[in-house]
Amino acid sequence: MPWNEPGGDKDPWSGNKKKSTDNNPADKVTELFSNMSKGGGGGGKLLYFLPLIALAIWAFSGVYQLESGKQGVVLQFGKFKEITTPGLHWIARPIQTVEIVDMQRNRSANDQTTMLTMDENIVDLEVEVQYLVDDAKAYLFNVMLPDFERDQSQGVLYQVMRSAIREVVGASDMDFIIKEGRTEIEEKTKELMQSILSEYKTGLQIVKVNLTYAEAPKEVKDAFDDANRAREDFNRSKNRAETYSNKVIPDARGKGARLVEEAKAYRDQVIAKSEGDASRFSNLVAEYQKAPEVTRQRLYLDTMEKVMSGSKKIMMDTTSGNNMFYLPLNTDGGASEQGSVPPPVSPSVLERLKREKDAAEANRQAASRTTLREGR
To answer: Where in the numbering of this chain does the Band domain appear (predicted)?
Structure first.
């Protein structure tokens, strides 16, 4: 028996392994093509289906599916043909190919660098940029290596990021960068990067710029912290002085305004009193010209009444021989709590005042008759 003609379920290599061969798919395929090459009845019919099988395999090889958030850029002979959206699609391979771009994936780029500020200080920075692809065709064809993620230093995005942050930091002071200016620096850097990328038509959209670290270099950080503490002490003292000034100045202004108003009120009071005294004096002059003695006596009595009304002493006439005296009930000699009661006057004083009044009246009548006689 020849070595290549098995018989009796045996061959030179396999021995008796017919049972395991029947269960091997690879052996079945080999046996099928062997029968086809021999021109057997079943194999000859299968030759007619080979082109259909090959056509089916080629057709299925061009089917692809895009998930949500992705776009397919179809190339035909290496030239852009169309953009496909999420769903099931087909291309004619190998003359057509497809580049799938994830439009919703949040990509990022980082940079650590040392830069010079506007006030000639050095600052260490760490910047993170988050971005998306918003134009798949521009992303693939307009710029070479728009965001080369394997080596970001070779990508256009990295170069634009470093250029933008250097320009923004170079126009800012050290204190502004480290303290209150981080948000503004992030916004300015984002706007500048987006304008450059849009001008280059890279198909990239900047989502956010984060300034994750901004400090003085480690070699000078201690000295820089000392300067910051001194500046904070100065600002604290300045704020305390401004607070005291804001408290004292309004009080002083209020007190000054109050003094001015009091002075004005006193001025008006004095002027009114002076005008009243002048008017009263003018009236007294007119009365005095009519009856000088009576007017003089009345002024004397009014004055004495004002002077003696607050005195605690009691004046008595001992020459009149009147032994009856009227003393005030209140021991202080002043007004009682129920009202102001003047002290009683002795009869001799009243008599003397009456005589003086009658004499003044007679003098006034005589002066009137003399005036009438001279007029005739």
So the answer is: 61-228
Number of alpha carbons in the 13 Å side-chain half-sphere of residue 366: 8
User: Which domain does 156 fall in, by range?
Assistant: 107-216
**Is the pLDDT reported for residue 265 higher than 50?**
yes
* Whether residues 84 and 179 fall in one domain: no
Q: What is the number of structural domains in the chain?
A: 4
| Alpha-carbon span 244 to 326, nearest angstrom | 67
Residue 10 lies in a domain: no
> Confidence class of residue 74 from pLDDT cuts 50, 70 and 90?
very high
Give the integer Cα–Cα distance in Å for 233 and 216.
20
Mean pLDDT value of segment 306-331: 63
Q: Is residue 126 part of a domain?
A: yes
**Pure H helices in the chain:** 18-22, 25-37, 41-47, 50-61, 136-141, 156-170, 174-178, 182-200, 221-290, 292-308, 347-375
| Cis amide linkage into residue 94, ω under 30° from 0 | yes
Measured distance CA(53)–CA(31) in Å, rounded:
18
Name the CA dihedral angle for 198, 202, 208, 212, rounded to a multiple of 10 degrees: -120
Judge if 145 and 176 occupy the same domain: yes
**pLDDT tens per residue across span 275-296:** 888 888 888 888 888 888 888 8
Task: Tell whether 235 is covered by a domain.
Answer: no
